[in-house]
Design brief:
Bound molecules: flavin mononucleotide
Number of helices: 6
Distance between the termini: 41 Å
Order of helices and strands: HHEHHEHEHE
Radius of gyration: 17 Å
Number of strands: 4
Strand order of the largest sheet: 1-2-4-3
Length: 179
C-alpha cells in the first residue's frame, strides 16, 4: 500500500487528458471505490452513471458555461446522482463517494477533476442538474451532485505545498479567533 499522506499531497485536479482510454480494471476500481464509500445509516443512496461516449461527453460538457470543459476531453466521466428520498444527508453521501473515486484514481496514477453540477445553471438558465438528468434519463428524485472526469494525465501539477496549509483554521479545544 502506498503512503496515504503522500497520495493526498500529490492529488491535484487534472483537467487535461491524453486520448488513451482507461482499462476495464481501472474503471472497475474507480466505481468500486464509490461503492465502498461510507454513507449515513448505510443507506447507499447514490447512483453512478459511467460515460465514455465522446458525443455524450461533449454534451455533458455543456452543463454549464464555465468550469465544465474537462468533461469533453476526459476518457471517463462518472455522473454522481443520489436518491434524495433515501437519505437526509444525501449531499454528504454523494460527496464522500466522489472523493473516494478521486483518491482511487490518484492511486492508479490517473488524473481526475470534480465538476460541480448541483446549484449551477446552463448557458440558457436551465438548472445544470436537470440538463444532465434529461440527457442521461436520470429520474427526477435523483439530483446530480457532480460529474467526475478521469483520464491519463496530459498535464503535470505540483504537489500541494504543505508549508502553506491553513493551520489557523484548526482550533484546538475551543474556537480561537485569528488575532
Ligand atoms: C465541491 C467542488 C466543486 C468543484 N467544482 C469544479 C468545477 O466545476 N470545475 C473545475 O474545473 N474544478 C472544480 N473543482 C476543483 C477545484 O477547483 C480544485 O479542487 C481546487 O481548486 C483545489 O485544487 P486541487 O484539486 O488541484 O488541489 C471543484 C472541487 C470541489 C471540491
Amino acid at each position: 500500500m502506498k503512503d496515504l499522506h503522500e497520495l493526498l499531497v500529490n492529488r491535484r485536479s487534472i483537467r487535461r487528458y491524453t486520448d488513451e482510454p482507461l482499462t476495464p480494471d481501472q474503471v472497475r476500481l474507480i466505481l468500486e471505490a464509490g461503492l465502498l464509500a461510507p454513507t449515513s445509516k448505510s443507506a447507499r443512496p447514490w447512483q453512478f452513471v459511467a460515460v465514455d461516449d465522446k458525443n455524450m461527453l461533449e454534451r455533458l460538457a455543456q452543463c454549464k458555461p464555465a468550469g465544465a470543459a474537462p468533461i469533453a476531453g476526459c476518457a471517463l466521466a462518472v455522473v454522481v446522482a443520489v436518491d434524495q428520498t433515501q437519505s437526509d444527508p444525501w449531499i454528504e453521501d454523494a460527496s464522500v463517494a466522489a472523493s473516494y473515486m478521486q483518491l482511487q484514481a490518484q492511486d492508479l496514477g490517473l488524473g481526475s477533476c470534480w465538476i460541480q453540477v448541483r446549484g449551477r445553471f446552463t448557458a440558457d438558465g436551465l438548472p445544470s442538474e436537470e440538463y444532465v438528468q434529461e440527457l442521461l434519463g436520470i429520474p427526477e428524485q435523483c439530483p446530480v451532485v457532480c460529474i467526475l472526469t478521469f483520464g491519463n494525465k496530459a498535464e503535470e501539477r505540483k504537489p500541494v505545498d504543505t508549508s502553506k496549509l491553513l493551520w489557523e483554521k484548526v482550533h484546538i479545544g475551543t474556537w480561537k479567533a485569528e488575532e
